[in-house]
Inverse folding.
């Protein structure tokens, strides 16, 4: 339900979203049907291009060395308002739409397990709505929609930030699917990622082991060294790894190759980088001990997210204007069926998470919400420096380049995790479509505020300058590293 205290321009923005929502929903559903990962997302971005061409944006393709990144622009002059969009999927999450039980469409294929089909088209819808109003009202300024591939681990926005793509932007906005609606008040971990490949010499493990040099031994020694390193890093840091190549399935062969994929996370890049440097030293030591060759392929990195307070507060007010999702009994029952696949015992931890998100909730109130299928009311904006329960996003790099605000739209079944088949199952539902519309309206309204309210924009810039005083953005991605994979 929308509140009555809203000006004509904002009411018109919401009407435009409603008038054009079918084209955004169509694009979202088509992207869901062709899930693509990391930087190779030709079919996904094509759905954006169809809408942008129809709506008359000037589109620059192939931004920052990424074939499927774009900047869609309308208008000229100041201020420059940015909106970021995503469209990549996740590996091994194929799932039938609308099926509350696990059933992949194609075993091992990707799926939209983080809702980026909805995220990207919600941002697209916001840009279209604001552009339409700018045309109708002849509003001054520049609107830019940034199409960003590879949010999932590749961090397209980090490459864009490294190349100065956001340097002329006065304010930026985005959003993300969630099971709870709230403006992001902080959090997010910086991360550095790299592949460590060891090359040895194959030999018969019994007849001639002395002639071999075992790359798998090197990889194993590296992981052992990292385990000992964990005792000597800050509590908030995290180190994860996976074997991309374990040398093969034969135990009687000295393994000639092995590759590990490492993530190093910390609250800030300046904390993650020295930990990463020590991981590199451990890898070199493992290669030395096993007389193998080491090669390091720096994959990507992203900064922590820092919310701009004035813009976040404006976004919070606009969420109130848009109002919570209004779902039918049938939609609530559909979400409950998906939620029924949550692991046993999830309610307790969920209750604690809800209380952290809204400290004013009593134990009984939090428990009541946790036992429902959806958390429809908006949760309050709470600023926090805690990184507990946080992941990483390349929106962080945007926030270091320009004042930035983002919010979470709670249209996923309560308690279901991101990067799950449950989110894929929900991705073409009428509930997801309503979440898209809510997001498009909220982003467009807040971008309108930044475009037309000089006082708000000045406060946002002053807050940004204070937050980052003496801490200029510095990408840790080497200049020679290009987006790949």
């Amino acid at each position: 339900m929308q509140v009555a205290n809203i000006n004509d321009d904002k009411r018109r923005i919401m009407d435009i979203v409603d008038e054009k929502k079918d084209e955004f929903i169509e694009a979202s559903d088509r992207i869901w049907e062709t899930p693509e990962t990391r930087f190779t997302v030709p079919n996904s971005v094509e759905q954006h291009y169809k809408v942008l061409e129809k709506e008359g944006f000037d589109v620059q393709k192939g931004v920052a060395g990424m074939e499927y990144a774009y900047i869609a622009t309308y208008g000229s002059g100041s201020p420059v308002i940015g909106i970021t969009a995503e469209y990549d999927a996740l590996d091994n999450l194929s799932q039938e739409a609308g099926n509350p039980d696990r059933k992949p469409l194609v075993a091992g294929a990707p799926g939209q397990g983080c809702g980026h089909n909805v995220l990207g088209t919600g941002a697209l819808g916001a840009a279209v709505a604001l552009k339409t109003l700018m045309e109708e009202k002849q509003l001054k300024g520049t609107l830019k929609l940034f199409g960003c591939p590879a949010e999932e681990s590749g961090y397209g926005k980090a490459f864009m930030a490294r190349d100065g793509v956001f340097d002329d932007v006065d304010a930026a906005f985005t959003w993300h699917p969630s099971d709870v609606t709230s403006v992001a008040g902080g959090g997010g971990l910086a991360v550095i990622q790299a592949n460590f490949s060891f090359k040895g010499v194959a030999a018969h493990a019994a007849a001639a082991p002395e002639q071999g040099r075992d790359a798998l031994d090197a990889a194993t020694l590296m992981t052992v060294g990292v385990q000992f390193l964990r005792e000597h890093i800050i509590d908030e840091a995290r180190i994860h790894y996976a074997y991309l190549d374990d040398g093969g399935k034969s135990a009687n062969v000295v393994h000639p190759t092995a590759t590990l994929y490492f993530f190093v996370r910390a609250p800030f890049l300046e904390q993650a980088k020295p930990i990463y440097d020590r991981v590199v030293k451990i890898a070199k030591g493992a290669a030395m001990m096993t007389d193998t060759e080491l090669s390091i392929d720096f994959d990507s990195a992203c900064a922590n997210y820092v919310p701009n307070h004035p813009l976040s507060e404006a976004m919070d007010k606009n969420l109130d204007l848009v109002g919570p999702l209004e779902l039918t009994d049938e939609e609530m029952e559909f979400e409950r069926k998906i939620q029924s696949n949550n692991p046993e015992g999830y309610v307790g931890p969920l209750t604690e998470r809800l209380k952290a998100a809204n400290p004013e909730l009593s134990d009984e109130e939090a428990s009541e919400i946790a036992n429902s299928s959806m958390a429809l009311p908006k949760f309050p904006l709470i600023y926090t420096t805690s990184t507990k329960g946080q992941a990483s996003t390349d929106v962080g790099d945007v926030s270091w380049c320009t004042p930035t605000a983002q919010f979470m739209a709670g249209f996923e079944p309560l308690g279901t995790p991101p990067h799950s088949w449950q989110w894929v199952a929900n991705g073409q539902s009428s509930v997801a479509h309503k979440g898209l519309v809510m997001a498009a309206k909220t982003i467009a309204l807040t971008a309108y505020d930044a475009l037309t309210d000089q006082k708000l924009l000045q406060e946002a810039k002053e807050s940004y300058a204070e937050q980052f005083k003496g801490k200029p953005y510095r990408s840790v991605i080497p200049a020679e590293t290009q987006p790949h994979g």
User: Anything to note?
Assistant: The chain has two domains: 8-187+304-467, 190-302. The longest strand covers residues 190-199. The chain has 14 helices and 13 strands. The mean pLDDT is 96.
